[in-house]
Amino acid sequence: MTAIALLALLALAGLVLAWIDFRRGIIPDWLNLVISLAGLVQAWLLDGWGGSLAASLDGLIIGAVVFALRGLYFRFRGHHGLGLGDVKLLAASAVWIGVGGIPMQLLVGSATALIAAVALHVTGHTMSRQTALPFGPFLALGLLATLALQQQGWVV
Fold it and tell me: If you placed Cys at 39, which of 23, 64, 72, 96 could pair as Cys (CB 3.0 to 4.6 Å)?
């Protein structure tokens, strides 16, 4: 029963995140914290303290790697391609889906963001390389999709 409540909390957090990111272009730290803490509780319920520690390390590793990649992108392009909220969301996501689930989350998020960009273009919105499209909602969808695929045994 607690696991279902945590999944419902994750889904609700994803909806709130999408709404805020679409409207304001930010992902609040408190929302990333809720996602992380819920994932740590879920890991603890499933695997005890060892599971929570492993989930914490997954989050730290992904957060550090994505933050470093964000810095490299800035050095080469002169602007950030990913906001810090997105970096923190990926770290929080790793608590839920592990390091191995992040590529699938990024694939789902990128594919759905691309579909959204094409839909905006087709409906007459001007799209260019500088057009900003919040990525958080698509990452949240990717997290939920990856978690569902992991539950079915289709993704590691």
Answer: 96
Residue 147: which of 4, 2, 28 has the closest Cα? 4
Cα–Cα–Cα angle for 67, 74, 114, rounded to 5 degrees: 80
User: What gap in Å lies between CA 94 and CA 146, rounded to an integer?
Assistant: 11
Q: What confidence tens digit (pLDDT) does each residue in 89-138 have?
A: 999 999 999 999 999 999 999 999 999 999 999 999 888 877 889 999 99
Written as one letter, the residue type at 74 is F
Closest to 136 in 3D by CA, of 115, 114, 109 = 109
| Helix H or strand E segment including 61 | helix 29-77
Chain segment 65-83, per-residue pLDDT in tens: 999 999 999 999 998 989 9
Token pair recorded at residue 112: 């759905």
Neighbours of 36 (CB within 10 A): 22
Nearest to 106 by CA among 153, 68, 141, 72: 141
With vertex at residue 41, the alpha carbon angle to CA 97 and CA 12, rounded to the nearest 5 degrees, is 70
pTM beyond 0.85, yes or no = yes
